[in-house]
Design a protein that fits this description.
Elements: H1 20-24, H2 34-38, H3 57-75, E1 92-95, E2 100-103, E3 106-108, H4 114-134, H5 137-142, H6 144-160, H7 163-171, H8 176-202, H9 207-216, H10 221-241, H11 243-249, H12 252-255, E4 266-269, H13 271-274, H14 297-301, H15 321-332, E5 340-343, H16 345-351, H17 364-385, E6 390-396, E7 403-404, E8 410-420, E9 426-433, E10 439-442, E11 453-456, E12 460-470, E13 479-488, E14 494-502
Antiparallel strand pairs: 1-2, 2-3, 4-5, 6-8, 7-8, 8-12, 9-11, 9-13, 10-12, 13-14
The protein binds iron/sulfur cluster (SF4) (2 copies).
One iron/sulfur cluster binds near residues 269, 293 and 309.
């Protein structure tokens, strides 16, 4: 991929014709004085971009995807999901207070955070696979920066008009009309940004009660802080910084180069068909020239302000709006669509006769990603479907390590933590396997017997103190293995935790 820097964009990138010397490749000798060179700015000032509205299948798909994504993002915290009494009924909730993550019927406990890790790995591998097949489709369609920028541009267009009107308005002197349009745009931007920040915090608390408390001034301070931060970042990233986030701040454009190859489909200007470009009058012959009439509609439509005809560029987010723009022109001039299209370098080389093979869906890179994705998905599925409703955690006392009793026997203390992941109260039987003569007692329940039973409420963690005592004749080594097992009396589901018994022998 050519990584043309923003500073080296085509001079005609915003629809202006390029100077003649650039077109014919005249080289100038730099006669800039030394002190002037020292005064050069480190960063190039941002050139405003005025993307023109286009119509076509890619634009339509992007509108649908944008509406769907926003609906999901703003609406999800309000979706209810019935659970056991005392549990939150919010379908998607990151409950820091209760230390749980709820996602519809799934409930993740803190000790099951590896499920989240697995999901992140699946998401990363899916992104690698899609990128190796279709280039930066994540950037072009699904990235929040793209979606919110698209929404903010739509608001801008509503208040200030399409590309040419916006350019004229920005050049015009301040007037009541200009002030009203700019003010209207920024107010709606701020409202959207606030709704975005407000929706974010609803994922961390019961949405209806938090929303009410928020407007009554009774929500926790963190709610106001995070809503404020998200409001500010949404407003500045989507409203003010836009394409600069993708070009300068996001690492993905640099990383994704490692996932693409010659056969990756990317938005491509088919230069072999378009060149030599130039204006064309109706009725003129197409012989000896290309299909590009140099109308620059592809440039005007580009939200990144680049000219796709300059080749692959770091800034291109593969949004395909230039395809829609150019296809509309091709229809008008009665030439075949697809002068700009999703295509690969391999396909281009094949068309030019420089290679025998075009793009293959199945190639080593995509097979590797697909196999890795399938493997991780299967592991996750198996792990999740065999997920136990009970967890056992046994912690041996360290201070003191052991206690020697008057009859020569030795006692160790343990904290037994039983996690009941059921929505109903459960009874658990504890058995401890170890050397012969082992005896068990439960703190606070002297009559519990050798296999004590414990009751744990629905969706709760039960903590119990247990003493294990070994007679003098069983103390054959400094430490001896023990196995704690709890079984749910209703279902016989078991959880096992091996541990050690410290005898003090040899100390
Ligand atoms: S829209 Fe198509 S015809 Fe017009 S300049 Fe771009 S590539 Fe050429
Ligand atoms: S060049 Fe085309 S695909 Fe790339 S960002 Fe611009 S409009 Fe989107």
């Amino acid at each position: 991929m050519t990584t043309q820097s923003p500073a080296s964009r085509s001079p005609g990138a915003q629809g202006e014709p390029a100077p003649q010397e650039a077109a014919v490749g005249v080289h100038r000798i730099d006669v800039t004085p030394v002190n002037a060179a020292a005064n050069r700015k480190l960063y190039k000032a941002r050139e405003p971009i005025y993307p023109k509205l286009v119509h076509g299948p890619f634009r339509a798909f992007k509108w649908v995807f944008l509406a769907f994504s926003l609906l999901v993002y703003y609406g999800l915290p309000w979706v209810r999901w019935p659970r056991a009494v005392g549990e939150p009924d919010q379908a998607v909730l990151v409950d820091f207070e209760g230390r749980r993550f709820y996602f519809f019927f799934i409930e993740i406990w803190p000790q099951e955070v590896y499920y989240i890790t697995g999901l992140l790995i699946i998401a990363a591998l899916s992104l690698f696979l899609v990128t190796s097949l279709f280039g930066r489709v994540w950037c072009g369609y699904a990235c929040p920066q793209t979606i919110w920028t698209d929404l903010f541009i739509a608001v801008e267009r509503f208040f200030e008009g399409d590309r040419n009107q916006r350019m004229r308005l920005d050049k015009a002197k301040w007037s009541p009309n200009k002030l009203a349009r700019k003010l209207g745009k920024h107010i709606v931007w701020l409202l959207i940004a606030f709704a975005t920040g407000g929706a974010w915090i609803l994922y961390f608390h019961d949405a209806p009660s938090l929303a009410r408390d928020f407007f009554l001034g009774q929500a926790p301070a963190t709610a106001y802080i995070f809503a404020g931060i998200l409001t500010f970042t949404t407003y500045s990233l989507a409203g003010m910084m836009r394409e600069q986030v993708c070009t300068y701040m996001c690492p993905w454009p640099r990383i994704q180069g490692a996932m693409t190859d010659n056969e990756t489909l990317e938005v491509t200007y088919r230069a072999e068909r378009g060149e030599p470009r130039g204006p064309h009058r109706r009725g003129e012959s197409w012989d000896g020239r290309g299909d590009c009439i140099d109308c620059k509609q592809c440039v005007a439509a580009c939200p990144m302000g680049i000219d796709i005809r300059d080749g692959d560029q770091l800034e291109c987010i593969n949004c395909a709006l230039c395809i829609d723009a150019c296809d509309a022109i091709m229809v008008k001039i009665e030439r075949p669509k697809g002068l700009i299209a999703y295509d690969s370098r391999a396909n281009t080389q094949k068309r030019l006769g420089a290679a025998k093979r075009g793009t293959r869906i199945l190639r080593p890179r995509t097979i590797y990603y697909a196999v890795a994705l399938a493997l991780v998905s299967v592991v996750m599925l198996v792990a999740f479907s065999s997920r136990s409703t009970i967890d056992l955690n046994v912690l041996r006392d360290r201070n003191p390590n052991y206690v020697q009793l008057s009859d020569g026997s030795v006692r160790n203390g343990y904290t037994v933590k039983i996690i009941n992941k059921n929505n109903t109260e459960q009874t658990y039987r504890l058995t401890i396997d170890g050397p012969a003569g082992l005896s068990v007692s439960v703190v606070g329940a002297p009559d519990a017997g050798p296999e004590p039973e414990f009751t744990v409420g629905p969706d709760q963690v039960g903590r119990f103190r247990v003493y294990v005592t070994l007679p003098r004749e069983a103390l054959t080594a400094a430490s001896l293995p023990l196995t704690f097992t709890v079984s749910e009396t209703a279902t016989q589901t078991e959880a096992v935790n091996p541990t050690m018994f410290q005898t003090g022998v040899g100390q």
